[in-house]
Amino acid sequence: MKIDKEYDVVVVGAGPAGSIAAKFAAEKGVSVLVLEKDREIGTPVRCGEAVSHEGIAEFIVPDEKFISSHIDKFTLISPDGTEVTIPLEQKGYMLNRQLFDKAVAEDAMHAGAKFITNAYVHGLLFNDSIVSGVKVKYFGEEYEIKSKVVIAADGVESRVGRWAGLSTFVDFREMEGAYQIVAANVSVPTDTLIFYFGENVAPEGYLWVFPKGEGKANIGIGVSGEIGKTKSAYKYLNEFIDRKYPEASMLSAVSGGVPCTPSLEKIFAPGIILVGDAARQVNPLSGGGIASGMIGGSIGGGVAGEAVIENRPDKLSEYQERWEKRLGKRHRIFDKVKNGVYNFSDEQFNALAKSFSKVPFEKRTLGNLFKKALINQPSLLIEAAKIFVMD
Amino acid sequence: MLLIKITPDKCDYCGTCVGVCPEDAIELTDSTIDIDEDLCTNCSKCVWVCPIDVLIFDKNKLKDKE
Ligand SMILES: Cc1cc2nc3c(=O)[nH]c(=O)nc-3n(C[C@H](O)[C@H](O)[C@H](O)COP(=O)(O)OP(=O)(O)OC[C@H]3O[C@@H](n4cnc5c(N)ncnc54)[C@H](O)[C@@H]3O)c2cc1C
Ligand code: SF4
Ligand code: SF4
Fold first, then answer.
1. Is A56 a member of any domain?
2. How does strand A32-35 pair with strand A114-116?
């Protein structure tokens, strides 16, 4: 496929954040090229695939073709096995991200953006220290592509921002190294997200069992680099599966990283902006980054398009302001909450789960439980789950 | 001397290690991983976050040198 030598906007990475950025930029009427290193958009899936309706509906019409199940409650399982099931005020979905990521990309293509796969970006072009394009390897050939704005949407492994002099590296204690499988032959309710807590199962975090329909589930765990010094996500998950689902088979297994940090100090530089995981826009408490990455991408893509149309390179700074207003500030608060919640002892989790289970099911609104949690425990556990399904 | 060992044929190319490397010493594509010996300080951060134990701090290499 032919690639031109110059585009107004070049996006690196075709995850949800990059594709939405491409769409919002293209809708401003500028030329957009998206470069994806993998062979196929949406593959491999390194994700738990859970989102709320609100989280995606702002950007794409929820469609059964990329939804694997509908979620209306979640279950918390404490270290001693106490289970509390809580109805969700906002419904959610388990996505099929292979198809979801493609659908978001196709929307951007319809808006006019061009996508190229097998295209690995390995450097930036500069013009007087202003980013002016990318260096890319595409099927073994080297290309230099000029642009007015580069949008780095290159995920957790992002290096593009660093090449532009932005500090993007994540403290190892805040990086969750994750291991996740899609398992078949497991019996789980299809409408419920299940979270396991506790020192032995998932220290300083949770282990998830999310339904994919037809006896399938997405099961995974993330552990911080501090925990990883002694035991990896891989080992934690295998122990859990062997104990809990000895009959399970694997449909897929992947590793992945979740940058659970507040967003970066600076997410733009002359000629470049960062969106999604590359800008560390994941909700640091829940680890959810699909919706928040698309919010970052939509703001960034829109601002990039305007900067080109109005011929105002300085306009890129508005992206950071608008991101801060919309989610950046909130994520800083979530980050503080995270440090509180994930330091809970097993006893605290058990006591909390017991006190929740005494509330009748129909009265288990998050508001009610949160109040109870605050009375019974100086805790914010429930807020974790709430925020997870909210964004 | 590079003390970080990459276990052959084990890496899943997920990029978690790249995200924490303070020196930008790790070069990763969709099917290759390489650590730049000149940039790496052997700080081990990549080892601690790797979810599937691909990276190992190789003490034996230190001994070999002695
Ligand atoms: C195990 C796990 C479970 C998760 N569970 C959930 C969940 O249940 N709900 C939720 O909301 N979020 C979840 N997340 C987070 C979510 O997956 C991410 O936040 C989201 O995918 C971020 O989107 P993105 O577009 O920023 O990055 P990505 O989806 O990672 O896309 C980045 C793209 O850039 C490409 N790329 C990278 N470098 C280059 C390069 N040099 N050149 C060209 N292309 C490049 C990559 O190949 C990739 O396709 C989870 C994450 C993990 C790891
Ligand atoms: S974190 Fe581990 S599995 Fe992931 S790319 Fe690095 S070495 Fe490979
Ligand atoms: S040991 Fe430190 S410097 Fe070397 S590759 Fe790993 S994280 Fe980077």
1. no
2. parallel
State pLDDT tens for residues A281-327: 999 988 999 999 999 999 999 999 999 999 999 999 999 999 999 99
Compute the half-sphere exposure of residue A10: CA atoms within 13 Å on the CB side of its CA: 30
Tokens representing A322 are 């608008």
Please give the Cα distance from A335 to A328 (Å, whole number).
Answer: 11
Mean pLDDT (chain A, rounded): 92
Residue type, A211: P
CB-neighbour burial class of residue B32 (10 A; exposed 0-12, middle 13-18, buried 19+): exposed
CA A236 – CA A163 distance, rounded (Å): 35
Task: Estimate to the nearest angstrom the gap between the alpha carbon of B34 and the chain centroid.
Answer: 8
Whole-complex ipTM = 0.94
DSSP A60: S
Question: Among A114-118, A164-168, A174-178, B59-63, where is mean pLDDT lowest?
Answer: B59-63
Domain containing A358: what range? Answer: 338-389
DSSP A29: T
Residues A182 and A224 occupy one common structural domain? yes
Q: What is the CATH number of the domain that holds A204?
A: 3.30.9.10
Angle (nearest 5°) at CA A360 between A354 and A366: 80
CATH of the domain at A13: 3.50.50.60
Distance CA B24, CA A158 (A): 10
> C-alpha angle with apex B26: B21 to A338, nearest 5 degrees?
30
What are the C-alpha distances in Å from A265 to residues A168, A298, A324? 9, 19, 10
Taking CB atoms and an 8 Å cutoff, what residues of chain A touch B16?
Answer: 156-157, 175, 177-178, 255-257
The Cα A154–Cα A280 span in angstroms is 11
Q: Tell whether A287 is covered by a domain.
A: yes
Choose the CATH number for B4-60 among 3.40.710.10, 3.30.70.20, 3.30.70.100, 2.130.10.10: 3.30.70.20
* Closest Cβ–Cβ partner in B19, B22, B52 for A255: B52
Last residue of some domain: A328, A352, A381?
A: A328
Q: Is B61 in the pocket of ligand 3 (CB under 6 A)?
A: no
Would the CB atoms of A257 and B45 count as touching at under 8 Å? no
Q: Which residues does A331 contact at the CB level (< 8 Å), separation at least 6? A: A262, A263, A281, A283, A284, A292
Q: Which of B34, B36, B44 to mutate to test the pocket of ligand 3 (most atoms within 8 A of CB)?
A: B44
Q: How confident is the model at residue A378 (pLDDT cuts 50, 70, 90)?
A: very low
The residue whose CB lies within 8 Å of the most ligand 1 atoms, and thus the one to mutate among A154, A182, A267, is: A154
Question: In this structure, what DSSP letter does residue B12 have?
Answer: -
Q: What is the DSSP letter of B51?
A: T
